[in-house]
Amino acid sequence: MLCGGLVLAGQPALQAATPVSVVPELPRGFRLLRPGTAYAASRYVAVEGQPFTHALRVETRLRPDNPWNIQLNVQTTAPVSAGDRLLATFWLRRVTSSGQAAHATFVFEKAGPDYDKSALRTFSLTDTNWHRFHVAFEAAASYAAGGAQVNFQLGYAPQTVEFGAVTVTNWFRDVTLEDLPDDHTYAGREPDAPWRSAAAERIDQWRRANLEVTATDADGRPLPHATVRVQMLRHAFGFGAAVAGRRLLATGTDGDRYRGVVTQWFNRVVIENDLKWPQFEADPALARQTVAWLRAHDIQVRGHNLVWPGWRYL
């Protein structure tokens, strides 16, 4: 079925609201953020043989400390509600790169602290052909117009890439994420990727051990042919994640689900932002309550450094 220009294969007819674009279509509105002109530059170039006539070329000249130190940025032009389903589409190609691939990370996030993210996806290109990418995601919170932003992080090794026809469309809740096209891929995702065999060897070395069980009766006599059932209660190996204090302490279904995932899958965490200096001074109670909850559930907590200098400031 064709719904507002989007084919929903195998889906029944939907009485969908008109989809709304939430960002200016490239090339309008996007700006390049970088530590200085020595790090990156951008310019518009003409394009032939594609569904668009111009592209934005970004040259990363020096690799900064973090990928987000160089980014294309644009703020939303329409409101978005929590739970809305959005589809980002863009064309991307590698012009040159000093490594084997060029990289670009798509981000949809709050346009200000704590920069809560609804989507973060890194794409890699090894050839110089144009490729069209799709990112389907759900809004993590509600934002007024200008309250969220789209970034393409480009602070990788020196490279030159081009962007064409960038759009982000809000389909509200009239579709599911499964209805929308999405490119869940990255270099090395293949089942036979070379890194997998080395990872399996490390898992066998560091995360597995033999378990010997002796079954006896109340007097200590061996029980031949005894049936033994073993249930692991806790990992000895550390599995970690970054958690957000407000989500961890939130009431309601979403809070219950968030806490359930944390306690089921992780035994070590770092708190995303609440222990950082500005956030802690703004709301110390939130940080303390978050740490107390994690400790009460026997989850190890990593704190946050007070000062984060770079080599340029030493």
Describe this structure in words.
With 314 residues, this protein is an alpha+beta fold. The protein is built from five helices and 16 strands. The protein has helices at residues 195-206, 245-248, 253-265, 277-282, 284-296; strands at 2-3, 6-7, 20-21, 31-33, 40-46, 54-60, 71-75, 85-97, 102-110, 117-125, 131-138, 148-153, 159-170, 240-243, 268-271, 300-302. Strands 3, 5, 6, 8, 11 and 13 form a six-stranded antiparallel sheet that branches. A five-stranded antiparallel sheet has the order 4-7-12-9-10, with no helix packed on it. The N and C termini lie far apart (60 Å). The relative contact order is 0.13. Mean pLDDT is 89; it is low at 1-15.
Helices and strands, with pairings:
Elements: E1 2-3, E2 6-7, E3 20-21, E4 31-33, E5 40-46, E6 54-60, E7 71-75, E8 85-97, E9 102-110, E10 117-125, E11 131-138, E12 148-153, E13 159-170, H1 195-206, E14 240-243, H2 245-248, H3 253-265, E15 268-271, H4 277-282, H5 284-296, E16 300-302
Keywords for this entry:
314 residues, alpha+beta, six-stranded antiparallel sheet
Quick synopsis:
The protein has 314 residues and is α+β, with helices and mostly antiparallel strands. The chain has 5 helices and 16 strands. The longest helix has 13 residues, at 253-265.
